[in-house]
Amino acid sequence: MRYDWTPLWRSTIGFDRLFDVLDEVQRTAEETYPPYNIERLDENRFQISVALAGFTPDEVALTVAQNTLTLEGHKAETDEKTFVHRGMSTRSFKRQFTLADHVEVKGAHFENGLLVVELQREIPEAMKPRRIAIAGASAGQVKQIEGKAA
């Protein structure tokens, strides 16, 4: 079941990205090919493993644009083989992953029929929490104002 977010888009301002993400999650839940795992390696490192048996690196494209990681695959059909049973799918696909802010793709490689994509969250120094020194009078610097006795 798909939801139509159009009425909410017309009556809200500034929430466009939220509805786009909800729509993306709904669409992603309906897609099942190719299967994948997302693994947290530590607090700031993640790994996506996508099962791509039968694909070669030059038949797969991986791109990142505006916090979206897109994986596309196209297998050239060859009529050289006659299959009695074909259980491994080699159909074309396009799968997208929405990346959080400051998550960058560090690399990708094939390993045992899996495409492994390495991700790392790198928060800029300007956005990291920092301690601010609070200036104030210390005990040795207190001056007493002298006045005349009344």
UniProtKB/TrEMBL annotation:
<dbReference type="InterPro" id="IPR002068">
    <property type="entry name" value="A-crystallin/Hsp20_dom"/>
</dbReference>
<feature type="domain" description="SHSP">
    <location>
        <begin position="27"/>
        <end position="137"/>
    </location>
</feature>
<dbReference type="InterPro" id="IPR008978">
    <property type="entry name" value="HSP20-like_chaperone"/>
</dbReference>
<keyword id="KW-0346">Stress response</keyword>
<dbReference type="Pfam" id="PF00011">
    <property type="entry name" value="HSP20"/>
</dbReference>
<comment type="similarity">
    <text>Belongs to the small heat shock protein (HSP20) family.</text>
</comment>
<protein>
    <submittedName>
        <fullName>Molecular chaperone IbpA</fullName>
    </submittedName>
</protein>
<dbReference type="InterPro" id="IPR037913">
    <property type="entry name" value="ACD_IbpA/B"/>
</dbReference>
